[in-house]
Write a structure and sequence with these properties.
The two termini are 19 Å apart. This protein has a single domain, classed as Multidrug-efflux Transporter Regulator, Chain: A, Domain 2. It is of the alpha+beta class.
């Protein structure tokens, strides 16, 4: 199983949020930051988007959502460190 990265149109599609709303949520610490693929291209890890959607469905508070975002950002630093964890990455531009 590989990591899937979602480009902005796919993220707005999955979350139902507009581009400007997503970036406002990122500024408030309530949505994960994108990952740079190139100087002008970003994407979001699909599993992080799934976790944020699930948290919203559960009705977590903004404080809990902020903690989840912090945890997801922290976990990024350990992705791929396990020798057997060589994952394939695919980029999804829309769903």
């Amino acid at each position: 199983m590989g990591y899937r990265l979602l480009r902005l149109p796919a993220v707005t599609d999955r979350t139902g949020q507009s581009r400007s709303r997503l970036y406002a949520l990122i500024a408030k610490g309530l949505f994960v930051r994108p990952i740079a693929l190139s100087p002008r291209t970003v994407a979001w890890p699909e599993h992080e988007i799934d976790q944020l959607i699930a948290a919203r469905i559960r009705g977590v508070s903004q404080e809990e959502l902020s903690l989840l975002v912090d945890q997801l950002h922290t976990l990024r630093s350990s992705v791929g460190l396990n020798a057997k964890d060589h994952q394939e990455v695919s980029v999804i531009t829309s769903t």
